[in-house]
Amino acid sequence: MQRRLITHNPCHIRGAGNVKRAKQIEPASLPQLEALAPAMPERYRLRVLLAAWCGRRFGEITELRRHDVDLAHGVVKIRRAVVRVDGTFVIGTPKSDAGTRDVAIPPHLLPAVKTHLASTITGAATDCSSRPPVDPTSGSTTFATPERSWPPAPAPHWPN
To answer: Which of 17, 94, 102, 108 has its C-alpha lying 20 to 30 A from 157's C-alpha?
Structure first.
């Protein structure tokens, strides 16, 4: 096909690559989100809010660092992600080139981001690049730690 000797791929299988979700994902409602975020330990609240309001994946949120947050322009720079491979956390780039991007922080979250950066994170430095490299399982990433070290979440009590 690249050399244009044939017009189509004879190995094409109709319907291949079309995967249907086994379970439809339903995002949290506003009342559920209002109940969930305050119920989380303070260290993880911003992670919940950024995931919900910015539509970020767990691995993207986990690998955020201080220098990825641009408060002047109200964006979070997605440059890294963490994935679990054979039980080990691996830091790399997002899934695709399109995954490396700047994501707008909704204006109503900016005060929470500022407060989090000023009070929650040990060190209060403006850029984590001055800190030594860390193992993603150590709990030293800017916004949170990987899921295996999360404390048990409180039982949800969803408002109707």
So the answer is: 108
Assess whether pLDDT exceeds 80 at residue 38: yes
Interatomic CA distance for residues 120 and 131, integer angstroms: 16
pLDDT for 51-69, tens place per residue? 999 988 888 988 888 889 9
Residue type at position 97: D
Distances (CA, A) of 102 to 93, 105, 131: 14, 9, 23
Q: Read off the pLDDT of residues 123-160 as tens digits, 9 standing for 90 and up.
A: 444 433 223 334 444 443 444 444 444 455 555 555 55
Residues 6+ apart with CB under 8 A from 71: 110, 113, 114, 117
Cβ-proximal residues to 67 (8 Å cutoff; 6+ apart), any chain: 77, 126, 127, 128, 129
